[in-house]
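Subject: Predicted fold for VWFA domain-containing protein, 1163 residues

User T.R. writes:
Posting the sequence so we have a shared reference for the thread.
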Amino acid sequence: MEFFWGNICLVVTLIIVDSVGQSRCFNVGTAGAKVFSGPAAEEFGYTVLQTTNHQGKWLLVGAPWSGYSRNTKGDVYKCPVTGSRTSCDKLNLQDSVSIPDVRNVNDNMRLGLTLTRMPGVNDLMMCGPLWGQLCGTQDFYPGICAKLSPLFAPQPAFSPAVQTCGGPMDIVIVLDGSNSIYPWEPMNHFLQKLIPALDIGPKNTQVSVIQYAVDPQFEFRLNEYKTKDEVMAAASAITQMYGHSTNTFHAIQYASQWGFNQKNGARPGAAKVMVVVTDGESHDMAFRDTVIEECERDGITRFGIAVLGYYTRNNIDTENLIKEIKSIASLPTEKFFFNVSEEAALSTITGALGNRIFNIEGTGKGGDNFKMEMSQVGFSAHYSSQQDVMMLGAVGAYAWSGTVVHQKGSKVDIFPFSAFEGALQDRNHSSLLGYAVTTLNDGSTLYFVAGAPRSNHSGQVIVYTVNAHKQTAIIDSERGKQIGSYFGSILCSLDVDKDGVTDLLLVGAPMFMSELKREEGRVYLFSVTKGILNEQGFLDGPSPTEDARFGMAISAIPDLNLDGFNDVVVGAPLEDKQKGAIYIYNGEKKTLNKQFSQRISGSKLDPQLQYFGRSLDSYKDLNGDTLPDISVGAYGKVVQLWSRGVASVTATASFNPDKINIFNKPCNVNGRKLSCFNANLCFRSSFRPASPVGPVDVSYTLTLDADLQASRVTSRGLFTKNNERLLTENAQVSSTPLCRDYQVYVQETPDFVNSLSLKVEIEQSSANANPVLNKFSPSATQFFIPFTKDCGADDVCISDLVLSVKTDTKASSSAPVLVSANDRELSFEVVVRNKKENAYNSRVSATFSSNLYYSSVSPVTDSVKCTSTQTQTVTCLVGYPALKKNDEVKFQINFEYSLDQLQNRADVKFEAKSDGKEERPADNNVDISIPVQYDAGIVLSRQSNINFYVANSTGAVVTTLKTLDDIGPEFNFTVKVSTGNFLVNLLYLTIAVPVASKGGNQLLYVSKVETQAGGSVSCDSSSLVDPLKIGVKDHRVSFSEESFRGTEKLDCTSAKCESLKCILKDTKVQSDYFVTVRTRIWSGTFISATYQSVELTSSVDVETSDPDLLVIGLKQLPVVVTVSKPGEKGDVPVGVIAGSVIGGLLLLALAVGLLWKVGVWCN
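User M.O. replies:
I've generated the C-alpha cells; pasting them so everyone works from the same file.
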C-alpha cells in the first residue's frame, strides 16, 4: 500500500480499513439480462455455447430431447445475442447427421447433449452419444459427432467407434421344393421374415435362393438384386417346382460350386453361409460325406433346418431325418441345426436364425465380443489446440468401464481397456471413464485428464500422457472422498495467471452429501505439478441445508474483472428449491479465491426459472465491451448475463491550514470563536476496461475522529455544514478529479497532540449500475491533520532521522537460515536517532514478505507502540508525540516465520519517517534479505524382520525354483516416513535394493511391495516385484563361485541395485506413512561364495519436491542384514605375515646378543 501526501508540507496517511466484505454483487450484472425461451420438453438449455460469425453473435443451445415424445433425436438451436429477439431458431440438424453405408438408428441419439468449440481451427462440434446403428437385429450405440461450420452448416459426421457389421457375407438359401412340401406359402413367409433381418447391400450381405427336388435351379443369384426391397420382391414371387425325388446333397453340391461362384456374384473374402431347408430324407445320401467335405474345404458355414410336417402328417419316425439334417449342419450342431413341426412354423425361427447368422465368428459381434459397441463416444468432448487433438469420452465402452478416444484429423486412437485397467481397478465394470475430459499444460508436456464418477462408487480422476507410439502412461489419479458424490463428472482446467501453464484443476462432485443429508455438491481444487495433482481444498459454496448440486457445471472465465487473472463460474441448479444459482470465483496469482465474489440466483432474474446453472459458457465478449459475458442454461431457457466494467475509486485530501493551531480561532460558529480548517476532498476513478470511462455513481460518508480514544468520548471536529461528525453525500466520479471543500471546526478538547482523522467510506449508489466498484479495492481511507508543533520560528520541522537495523541471524546464499517448527523466530534490533529539530509523529514502518508475520516488540514501553495497520506491514510510533533533538530510541522487533507460506528469502524493509521534512532521507531506509530453507521435519526410519543370516555351507543349493522358499529365507523391512509440522504435499521415496553381485550372482529377490491403504503412497514396482513369477511355473537357476573377501558391504557401489520409486502425496502433518518391501535372500549365492561375513545393504532415500526450499536432515538410511558363513577360513593379511617375519628376526638377534654377552662362544 502507499502513503499519500497532502499539501507540500503535510503528510496525509491512507489506511485501508475495509473492502466490500461479504457483498454478493460484483461485476456480472443482472439488469438487462436477456432470457431466451425454448421447448422445455426438449430439454432446451441442457448445453450452451457462445460463438460468433460474420452474421453476428450467437448462442448455440442444445436440446437433446428434441423430437419428444415421438423420438428424442435431439437438435441444436441458434439464439441471436444482438437485437431484441428472445426466440431461437432450430437448426434442424437431426436428419443431417448420419454415417454412409451404415444402417443408422437416429431415434433417441440425443444430438446436442455435447457441444464444444475448436478454437484452433475455428470450428464447433456437436455430438449425439446415443446414436445407434443396426447390425442384423442388434442395435449398437457407438455415438456420433459432427463439426459445424461458422455458419452452423453440418459437416460430414463421424463415429470413431462405428461397428463393421460382419463385413461382406454371401448367403445361399437351398429350399426343398419337392412334392412333400405342403403348403408352399410358409416357405415364402420364411424368406420374407428372414431377409429383413439381414444387412443387405453390395458391401454387406448378398442373398441367393436355389430350389431343388430332383435337380437344383437358381431362383436368383447373389449379384442379381442390390437392395433389400428387390430381394424381398424376388423371394415373394418364388413358386414351388415339385418333384418326386429329394436330391438334397446334389443341391448342396450345386450351391457350393455355382451358388458361391464369382460369375454368379460371389465375392472373394466374403463369409460363405448356406441355409438348407428340407422336409425329408434325401435320395442321394451316398454323396453326403463327399459333399460335406467339399463344403468344409471351401469354408462354407451351413445351417440345417428340418421341416417335420410331412413325417408328422404320415406318422413316420423322424429320427433318421433329424440325424441326416444334423450331419449337414456345421459344428457345434446346437448352434447350426433347427427343426420345426410343420411348414407353417418356419417363420418362428427366423429371428433366432438371423441372429446366429449375424454372430458367425469373424462376421458379427455378440456375446463376449462387446467392446466399443455400446461406447457412446461423444458423451463428453474437449479440444486441445496445442496438439490439435479432440478428446471424446466413451462412457459405455468395455461394459461401462469407459475409455477415451483421441481424434486428430482423420486418425483415431481408441484406448483399450488395459490402458486404464490398473488405475481404475474396476471390478464392477461401471466406472464410466470419459464422463468428463480435459487437458493440463505445463508448457512442454500436454497431460490428458478423464473423469470416472462411478469408479469404486466414489469417483476418480485419471491423468495420463500419450507417447509417439500411442501408448498411455498413467501419471496420477485422485479418488473421491464420498460414495455416490459423482466426483470427476465435471472437470475444468484453469490457467490462472495466463502464462500458458495450467495452475489448477477443478473437479466437480455435484452429488456430494452434506452432514445434513442434502445434495450440497462440492468443487475440489487441485494444483498441478508435472501432471501430479495436489489437493488445495474446495470452494465455499451453497448452504449445507439444501439440495444444490453445486458443481453440476463449471466454466473458466477469461479474466472477468480485467485484473490479469482468469476466473471461474460454477452452477448449482438445484439450489433455492430447484430454481438454481451461479457463483463467481476470482483468480489470484496462481490459485483461486475460495470465497465467491458474487452469487446470482435464478429467481432474481425470473421467478419461473428452473435449474438455472445446469450449463454454462463464458468464453467470449458478446456485447463489444471487451469483457467476457456469461451464458447460463436453465430448464427450457437460456439467460445471457452481461459483465460490467470495474471502477477503482481513490480519494485524496488536503487541509488548509495544514495544521490546527488551537491559538488561532478565525471561525464563528454559533457565536463562538473556534479553531477551524478546510478539507479539500478529491475523488478520482480508474476504469477497466479503459473505454468507456464511466462515470461511476457512488455514495460516500465522511467521519471525523473515527477512532475515538478512551480519553475522548466525543469527536474533536465537527462539520460546519451539519454540526455533526458524520456527513454523507453522492457523487459521480470519472477519471477527471472531482473535488469538494468541507469546513471543519475544532471543539475544546484536552487532546491536542494526536492528529485529527478524517475517514472516507465509499460505496456503490446502485447495485445495478455499470461500471461497478471494484470489490478488491479499498472502500475506506483515512487522513490525518496534525496540531501545531514546536519547530522554531519558521514552524517548519526539519529533522534528521538515522535508522540502524541489526540482526543476530547469520546467513548467506550458501548457508541459508534453517527454519524449523521449533525455531521460527527472527528478531531485529532497531535504533532510531534524531540529530535535528523535533520529529513529530516519528515512526518506523517494517514491510515484510508473506513468509513472515509480526510477533511482538520489546521492551514494552510508552516510547514504542507498534500496530499492524496494513497487510504485511507493521508501523511503530517512536518517541511519541515527538522524537526530540539528539534523542535515541532502541527496541527489538520480533517476527516469526510462517509455516503456511514458504519462500526462499525473508525480506524486511525498514523505513523511518515523521511528519516533518527530512534533511537526509538516504539513511532512513534499511532493507534486509535473508536466504531461508525450511526443515521439513521428515523423519526416516526402518525396521526389518532379521538383522543376521547364517549361510550353511553344508546345505544343498536349490537350482529348481518352485516356491519362494526355494530361493532362501525371508528378509522383510518396513520404511516409515514421519511428517512433522510442515505441510509437505509431495515426497519422493527411493528404495535401492542390491539384486545381483558384480559376478552376476543374485543377492535379493523382491517378492512383494506393500503400501498402506488410503492411496497416499503409490510405488512403481511392476518391473521389480517377482520378475520370475515364482509359483506360476518352475525356473532353473545357477550360481557361480565368487569371492566376497575384502568386501565389507554388498551395496549399490559394490553390487547392482534396482530402485523402487514411490510418491507420497497429500500428506498430513504429524502422520506416518509406510512402505513394506518383502524379499528373499538368494541362499545359493551365499552358500557358493567365499567369505566370512558381509553386510547386504539396501538404501532408503527421501526427498521433497523442492529440495532447495524444503530440506530433510537425515534423508538417507541403510537397511542392513549381515550374512556370515561359518567354517570359512579367513585370509591372513600380508601385513601380518611381514610383521611376524620381522618380529622373529628381531627376537633371534636379541637372543644371539645375549648369548654373546654371557660368553657362550668364548667358552
